[in-house]
Amino acid sequence: MTTFKGKSVLVLGGSRGIGAAIVRRFAADGATVTFTYAGSQGAAEQLAAETGSTAVFTDSADRDQVISRVRDSGPLDILVVNAGIALFGDALEQDPDAVDRLFRINIHAPYHASVEAARQMPEGGRIIVIGSVNGDRMPVPGMASYAVSKSALQGLARGLARDFGPRGITINVVQPGPVDTDANPENGPMRELMHSFMAIKRHGRPEEVAGMVAWLAGPEAGFVTGAMHTIDGAFGA
Ligand code: NDP
User: Fold this and answer.
1) Of 90, 122, 177, 230, which has fewest CB within 10 angstroms of its CB?
2) Band of the pLDDT at 1, cuts 50, 70, 90?
3) What are the pLDDT digits (tens) for 155-165?
4) Is 51 in the pocket of ligand 1 (CB under 6 A)?
């Protein structure tokens, strides 16, 4: 496939899981792909070699690193912000520094990366942020900071769509339900509980999320912006 031939793509957080599937998809479709990693240098180098993409270290918890990375990537046709973390446990017992780090990775980095990318992005540019169905529905205790962060991305997309729309740049949020990755393995202890909320009782595959991202980044989605796109087996229905 050559849908994205000649397009420059940056994926923030592409070394593993959903991000790696997004890197694979754009690379297979002909794009020039750069992706960031923080903790998984080995996996990142392997993925880069396998796909012909470029892996670069950038800690999404560090706002200035994120801004520099986006700025130094030059004009991007497509930015995907995938890097995200979760914290589990009683909100009353969580370390406030850990909560703030989550907010930096899950909220601040997507905001600053999106704004920085838009400075140089040509007309037709696409920004896609990976949120979560937990931005709409949080059916279990112990994940409030994560839910806050994913709800914040909804405001990010709605607001920035207004700023970027006149320049022909779209911004959207993809909201997965449970997806089989290191962060949420399908054979993990939460499997039955999560599947009990769903109409399609399985975890999603990273490739399924990458497919939705590719559609939003493609030529058919030019009129789609400021919107949330849920892919969750009806977890949130
Ligand atoms: P994984 O934990 O499997 O992978 C996370 C990815 O994000 C890795 O590539 C990791 O890179 C990167 N990352 C994490 N922290 C940083 C950081 N500080 N700087 C740079 N990169 C970072 O997660 P998933 O693939 O499951 O999740 C990806 C996204 O999808 C997240 O935003 C998550 O919230 C969202 N999501 C996931 C769901 C699921 O069920 N799996 C459901 C709904 C949403 P490295 O290892 O190199 O640090």
Assistant:
1) 90
2) low
3) 999 999 999 99
4) no
Element of type H or E holding 81? strand 78-81
Measured from the CB, is residue 184 less than 6 Å from ligand 1? yes
Classified by CATH at the fold level, domain 8-231 comes out as Rossmann fold (3.40.50)
Q: What are phi and psi of 30, to 5 degrees?
A: 100, 0
pLDDT of residue 63: 98
Q: Write down the residue that tokens 């406030």 correspond to.
A: 96
* 130, 176 Cβ separation under 8 angstroms: yes
With DSSP H G I counted as helix, E B as strand and the rest as coil, what are the percentages for the chain, rounded to 5? 45, 15, 40
| 3 state SS of 2 | coil
Q: Based on C-alpha coordinates, what's the Rg of the chain?
A: 17
Helix or strand (DSSP H, E) at 164: helix 144-164
CA–CA dist 61, 136 (Å, integer) = 24
Q: CB-hemisphere CA count at 13 Å for 60?
A: 28
